[in-house]
UniProtKB/TrEMBL annotation:
PANTHER family in the record: ABC TRANSPORTER FAMILY PROTEIN (PTHR19211:SF133), ATP-BINDING TRANSPORT PROTEIN-RELATED (PTHR19211)
Keyword Repeat tagged: yes
Molecular function in Gene Ontology: ATP binding; ATP hydrolysis activity
Protein name (database record): ABC transporter domain-containing protein
Upper classification of the organism: Eukaryota, Haptista, Haptophyta, Prymnesiophyceae, Prymnesiales
A Pfam family per the record: ABC_tran
Transmembrane segments: none
């Protein structure tokens, strides 16, 4: 069920305009979005519409040109961008197991393998060099080290097959992970298995929020159709 409106928000953007830098035209304007505990928000829209920019703004990595961002005190979040130096990452020659053990400051190999397996990464991929993993497999490794409050994910299922995508979505299912989730994905199988409470359509320079199961006109919403 969607979070109750009376719940205290974890994070909010109020009437923000977002651009890559001060010299670039705005990508998104007049965006107001509030994240509540337990909310599972799927970002959909055409390529280059601003989904990654919106995730970066929620993470506090892109300051609004106009408007404001507010976060709950002590909020712990993990932002996993599609690419770039801020993505939770390992050294190119480091395996996912070694990466997780390093993040866990002494985590044993068996525990690291168990966490990676639970996130959908098999033992063979877990021991391959980071540079040899697909973008989707790297996302699964990042999920294994996720915090318990807020996850911001950009295309975590990229490069995954149908069954791999289902396994990744199962790790993020409400009964398996109780935190708040914002995820941009064009992988249809992953989107359907993720069981979002809301969908935000990012297109035309704006963001339109829809509650899953209902469209603006009161009809059932199918978030799997439309632009990815």
């Amino acid at each position: 069920m969607p979070p109750r409106p009376a719940a205290s928000p974890l994070l909010s953007l109020h009437d923000v305009s977002l651009a890559h830098d001060d010299d670039s035209p705005p990508i998104l304007t007049a965006v107001t979005l509030t994240l509540f505990p337990g909310m599972r928000l799927l970002l959909r829209g055409p390529t280059a519409a601003g989904k990654s920019t919106l995730l970066a703004a929620l993470a506090g990595r892109i300051p609004p040109r106009h408007g404001s961002r507010a976060a709950a005190r002590g909020l712990q979040l993990l932002w996993s961008p599609h690419e770039g130096p801020d993505r939770p990452s390992a050294r190119d020659d480091e395996s996912a197991v070694a990466f997780l053990r390093r993040l866990g400051e002494g985590c044993g190999e068996a525990a690291a393998l168990g966490a990676l397996s639970a996130a959908g990464l098999d033992q063979w991929a877990a021991r391959r060099a980071w540079a040899a993993l697909s973008a989707g497999e790297r996302s699964l490794a990042a999920l294994a080290a996720a915090p318990s409050e807020l996850l911001l994910l950009d295309e975590p299922a990229l490069g995954l097959g149908r069954e791999e995508a289902r396994a990744a979505a199962a790790v993020l299912a409400p009964e398996a992970w109780e935190g708040t989730l914002v995820c941009a994905s064009g992988h249809e199988e992953f989107c359907r298995a993720l069981r979002p409470t809301h969908v935000a359509w990012v297109e035309g320079g704006g963001v339109r929020l829809v509650e899953c199961g209902a469209s603006a006109g009161g009809e059932e919403s199918d978030f799997g159709d439309g632009a990815s």
